[in-house]
Amino acid sequence: MAKGHRSQIKRERNAQKDTRPSAKLSYARVSVQKACFVLDAIRGKDAVSALGIVTYNPRYASTLIEKLLKSAIANAENNNGMDPAKLYVEECFANKGPTMKRVKPRAQGRAYRIEKRMSHITIVLNER
């Protein structure tokens, strides 16, 4: 059993929260491996150059990550009062989401399984 009053426990839990600006995209219809190709390219870069990289990247995941990066920059500017010119991508990662299972008919009455993978993409920014 937890010690202390319920309000005290909540206050302590909220004090440990991460205050860095971030944005998360859940259930993105792209596999983790394909999303990581784009995320590896922007990790550690400043926000402006990272935005330029994903804008001109031909991969499908880059369109999703571009929108997510713009959202994280807007969160930093509006919620935390940070300067967009000083921001950089501190963390970015993709976690495995649920998999949609589909069946493809094959020769001689067989059926092959097709797995349509999803991912949860997170971008965390910080100020230099």
Structure explained in plain terms:
By secondary structure, the chain is an alpha+beta fold. It has a single domain (20-127), classed as Alpha-Beta Complex (Ribosomal Protein L22, Chain A). It is 38% helix and 34% strand. It contains four helices and three strands; from the N terminus they run αβαααββ. The protein has helices at 6-15, 32-42, 47-55, 60-78; strands at residues 22-28, 87-105, 111-127. Strands 1-3-2 form a three-stranded antiparallel sheet. Helix 3 packs antiparallel against helix 4. It holds the Pfam family Ribosomal_L22. Part of the 50S ribosomal subunit.
List the defining traits of the structure above:
Ribosomal Protein L22, Chain A, three-stranded antiparallel β-sheet, alpha+beta, 128 residues
What's the structural blueprint in terms of helices and strands?
Layout: H1 6-15, E1 22-28, H2 32-42, H3 47-55, H4 60-78, E2 87-105, E3 111-127
Antiparallel strand pairs: 1-3, 2-3
GO molecular function: rRNA binding; structural constituent of ribosome
Region (Disordered): 1-22
Protein name: Large ribosomal subunit protein uL22
